[in-house]
C-alpha cells in the first residue's frame, strides 16, 4: 500500500525535479542572433539560457527579444541577426533557483515564469525547473492518492 502525503511532495527539492543541464538547449556568449533564432525555431522553445564556455549562466534569450530588436522604425533590419550578439539582447534580470531550494520556492517563481534556471553557488548552470515538471509530479501524486482511496 502506498503512503503519500503533502509533506512528501513538499519535501522534494529543485534537484529532484529539474531537467539536467545536459538536456537543456542553450546558446553561448558570442553567438549571433541568427544562431539563437535557429536554435529557438528548431527546438520550438520560447526562450533558452545563455551560457559562457565555463557553463556560467548569464541570462535568457527568447524569440520576443530577438524580434523586438530587429524591428526598425521603417523596416525589419534582418542584417542585425548576423551582426548582433546574444549578450547585447539577452535578459539578465532573471529569477534563479539553487539545487537545494524547496519545491515551494520553485512554485512561487513558476507562477509568472514558464521555467526557471537552476545554478550552483558559483553561478554555474545546472538545469531548468519547468511548470511541466511540477504538473507531472502532481499528477503522479494525485493518481497514487486516488489508488490509495479505492483500495481502502
Ligand atoms: P514546458 O514546461 O516543458 O512547456 O517548458 C516551458 C519552457 O521551458 C519552454 O518553452 C522552453 O523555453 C523551456 N524549456 C523546456 N525544456 C527545455 C529544454 N530541454 N531546453 C531548453 N529550454 C527548455
Automatic annotation (TrEMBL):
Ranges for domain CBS: 14-67
InterPro entries: CBS_CbpB, CBS_dom, CBS_dom_sf, Diverse_CBS-Domain
Lineage: superkingdom: Bacteria
Pfam families: CBS
SUPFAM superfamilies referenced in this protein's UniProt entry, alphabetically: CBS-domain pair
Keyword tags: CBS domain
Protein name listed in UniProt: Cyclic-di-AMP-binding protein CbpB
Native organism: Metabacillus endolithicus
Amino acid at each position: 500500500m502506498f503512503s503519500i502525503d503533502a509533506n512528501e511532495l513538499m519535501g522534494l527539492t529543485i534537484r529532484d525535479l529539474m531537467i539536467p543541464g545536459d538536456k537543456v538547449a542553450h546558446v553561448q556568449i558570442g553567438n549571433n542572433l541568427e544562431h539563437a533564432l535557429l536554435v529557438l525555431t528548431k527546438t520550438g522553445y520560447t526562450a533558452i539560457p545563455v551560457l559562457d564556455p565555463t557553463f556560467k549562466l548569464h541570462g535568457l534569450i527568447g524569440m520576443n527579444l530577438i524580434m523586438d530588436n530587429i524591428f526598425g522604425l521603417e523596416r525589419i533590419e534582418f542584417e542585425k541577426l548576423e551582426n548582433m550578439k546574444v549578450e547585447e539582447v539577452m535578459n539578465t534580470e532573471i529569477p534563479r533557483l539553487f539545487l537545494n531550494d524547496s519545491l515551494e520556492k520553485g512554485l512561487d517563481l513558476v507562477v509568472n515564469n514558464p521555467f526557471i534556471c537552476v545554478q550552483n553557488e558559483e553561478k554555474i548552470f545546472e538545469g531548468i525547473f519547468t511548470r511541466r515538471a511540477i504538473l507531472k509530479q502532481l499528477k503522479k501524486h494525485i493518481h497514487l492518492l486516488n489508488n490509495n482511496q479505492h483500495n481502502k
